[in-house]
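Deliverable D4.2, example record:
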Amino acid sequence: MRTHKLHSVLAVPLALVITALACGGPNITVPTLEPGSTITPSSASGAVKSVEDVKSAVIQVEAQGTFVDPQVGTVYNAAGRGSGFIIDPSGIAVTNNHVVTGAALIKVWIGGEREARNARILGVSECSDLAVIDIEGDGYPYLKWRTEPVKVGLDIYVAGFPLGDPEYTLTRGVISKEKANGRTSWASVDHVLEYDATTNPGTSGGPVVDQNGKVVAVNYASNIQARQAFGIAADLAQGVVEQLRQGRDVESIGINGQAIASDDGSLTGIWVASVESGSPADKAGIRGGDILMTMEGLVLATDGTMGDYCDILSTRSPEDVISIEVLRFSTQEVLSGQLNGRELAATYSFARNLGGEVPPSGASDGTITYSRYIQVTDDSGAIVVEIPAEWSDIDGSNWMDGNEVIGAGLSAAPNLQRFNERWDEPGMFFGVSDDIAQLGGYIQVLDIRRDDLQQSCKFKSRNDYSDSVYEGKYDVFTDCQGAGNVYVVLSARPKSDPTAFLVLLEVNIMTDADLEALDHIYQTFNVVGSLP
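Output generated by the structure prediction step:
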């Protein structure tokens, strides 16, 4: 589904796109303080055994690179700061994904030391907001995970370097909730620990420890006004961290992202601050400053969280092909493509071009928009397209001319009989024929259909059509027998082999919801098998 209209979304000013960010969320700053000279780390290696010695294994992380901030634009050579902690004497350390992903250079100070050390990313998880880095050198003190149960009232301590300051801090509190909501605007986990210890931006990625110095959680969010802070519980973090240290990203496409929404709710999605080089996102053509609007046809972040985005990633393998749609503010374009597949390319938007022809109302069942889209195929398995789930009356029988089979056919509507007999029912017909391609071109097909339709409808215009695979033209008709509808007829052929087959795609539009469905249908129709 979509909760926005593309023809109006493109006019939304960038400054209106972002809602308030959580206090402990992604924080990009240009620091003015350098690490001080009065703090030195313990030189002794081994597992930390008390809260007093936690400092020796806590790190300050500086990620340098170019990031795109939704309010100030592109920030070159920015340095975002966060915290982390060492979990292995070889220099393996844990921090937050939003602290390091997309950075060109990562520097680390251990326990407040003067000189920075270089580090490299081993693996990241966008949805758990975790990252594992490898610090140069070895023989470091390290923290161990707490394995005992965590109960409300447990005394805990939050260690880190708030506000990019080189001064190490340790604050105290208690666990106030064992399983708080784990869905936020920058992560989505099953649950998180809630505690009342004071935390500030910059402590993201730092450890939450018990009195024995064992890690209870990874700190990642705070609400200072409510004296609430949140951390990824050790029992959830450990399994993810073990995969990351082996070099495997988990629930990640390679972005430093955050769920956003325009003030009026017309646009929601995942704001991309930066992209990891060589990642699926990078290969698909996603850039910093893009808004990832849909994945597999599902509009993202409608609830203000990364929940839907992460649910999609959790049900697929890293190599799976995933369809995506992106809004690129820098060029005011809507782009569609695939992760692990087709690169992003500009898409034609019927919603943007035909919006004035359609009454601004909801779907045929009275809702504002369709709930979701489903992929359907014809009976022969030759053609596929994604349609609104509400168009549940589907006919995949062959495209016929009298008693003769001329190709693959697929019709869908809330009520097919009404769609075939009247003009006030939304729906579509999708047919593909190699026989017709041998007899004439797409112009001839359009001319034949125009002659038929002009008996009932007002002919509006003929327009060029082109996408990454097909080229052709489409005709627009309106007010068929006084129904107040818009009827669009596309005839197209594959660019790679213009005589292979012809596509005929007809869609009846009654509302804005149908108009947006038209965009989705045109972005997903395809020929995938042998034609009958």
